[in-house]
Structure formats: structure tokens, C-alpha cells
Amino acid sequence: MIRIHRERSGAFAHPWGVRAEDNVVELNREREAPAGPLSFEELFLDEHDRLFRALYFITGSSADAEELMQDAFLKLWERWDRLDTIDDPVGYLFRAALNGFRMRARRARMAATKVLPAASSRDPFDDIDVREDVRRMLRGISPRQRTALVLTEIFGYSSEQAAQLMGIQPTTVRVLASKARAALRQA
After folding, report:
1. How far apart, in whole angstroms, are the C-alpha atoms of residue 17 and residue 94?
2. CA distances for 85 relative to 31, 82, 88, 98, 109, angstroms
């Protein structure tokens, strides 16, 4: 179990957790193997908290995480009658959510380039805010690096499992996570 703790002097990650603004976020790394095939309701009850937490850390927004989670479960529900064609329903769920996040980010980048000119400089006070909150630290790295780091470090997936969820090679996951850790150390 991982918790995230935040003290008034600043945010810090601790092996037992992280606390942000008096909210404790607990991440359960242990997963029990199902005894038999799960119903959709059982799968939803077993996985919706994990998926929401992962998406919250990746997006930095509870509203976006909730919407992406709902879309992913809807996609799985639409294919539930053909479950035998899906090797790993949980993997499919995470992949659908991450693909949805990437599509939204891509659309937002496209819209921003058409509407807004590129920002010329960063505000130095933003760096102070980034150090105070783990969520802000995670937002300071690229979405792919953030996804690789959250899946491997916080949720305990191997690089092979994270690669399957992200649709990339395991080597790429390791490189992305390494670059994310380096970026966080410099922040």
C-alpha cells in the first residue's frame, strides 16, 4: 500500500504514501487473482478505483479522470458479449482509458496551435508550486513519461505489462520512466 503525504513545508513522496492537501491517496499494489470469470459488475467494482487513481495521477484532474474512466468502462461494456476475444479485460480497460487520454491531449494540442501562439517563457514561480504538490510534479513531465512512471512505480506493473497497456515496447517504457525520474529529480 502506498500513501502520498504532504506537509506544510512541502510535498514529499514516502514509501508508505503521499498526502496532498490533507487528502490521503492510498494505492493498493496487491491484486488478487479471480476465482473464475468475473461479471461486468464484479470487474467494475474490482477495478474502478485503481483505474480512477491511475487516471487522476496521469491527468491531474478528477473530472477528466472520471470521464476517461467512464468512457473506458463503456467501451468494455460494448464488447462484453465478445469477451472471449479480449485476452485481458483489465488491460483492455487501461488501454482504452490511456488511448482516450492521448486522443484528448492530441486534440487539445491541435486546437491550441490553431488558436494560441506558443508561450515564449515559463513563470519562475511555477517551479515553486511544482515542488509543493506531487500532482503538479507529475504534470511537469510529458504525458507518456507520466504514464510510464505511474504504471511502473505507483501501480507496480512490470515494464512489459505497462508496455502492453500503453501499446509500446518494454524498452520504451523503461526509457520513459527513467527520463521522468530524472526530470523529477531536477525539479
Report:
1. 23
2. 23, 6, 9, 20, 34
22 DSSP assignment: T
Encode pLDDT of 63-110 as tens digits.
999 999 999 999 989 888 887 777 888 888 999 999 999 998 888 888
Residues paired with residue 2 on neighbouring β-strands, in sequence order: 27
CA distance 166 to 142: 14
CA dist., res. 131 & res. 114, Å (int) = 32
Q: Are 144 and 154 in contact (CB under 8 A)?
A: no
Residue the block writes with cell 490553431: 114
Across the chain, the runs of DSSP E, i.e. the strands, are 6-7, 10-11, 18-20, 23-25
51, 94 Cβ separation under 8 angstroms: yes
Q: CA 91: distance to chain centroid?
A: 13
Q: Return d(Cα 45, Cα 48) in angstroms, integer.
A: 6
